[in-house]
Amino acid sequence: MIVAFSVSPAGAADGEADGGVSEAVARAVRVVRESGLPNRTSSMFTEIEGEWDEVMAVVKRAVDAAGEGAARVGLVLKADIRPGYTGQLDAKVERVEHHLRAE
In the chain, how many domains are there? Predict the structure, then answer.
């Protein structure tokens, strides 16, 4: 499965001066990267690929990390659950790029 998620703390006691959440998001991304699962981060979401239990465990740890010191945490999550398929984090994009090149 592939999960795309975005996590954002709110009500942090010592938030960034500009109201940003990049430090908290960096803690979450670090958890994902240290998981060893295939992943990628963009400006809006982090994607991670693996089996249900391992992916969801990483998402939980990432939410916990982002929420350190925050009164609450928002989580947006989208999942592509396709049993029997792996390597889709890149393969899905490659299929789209193939069609774009064919035009």
Answer: 1
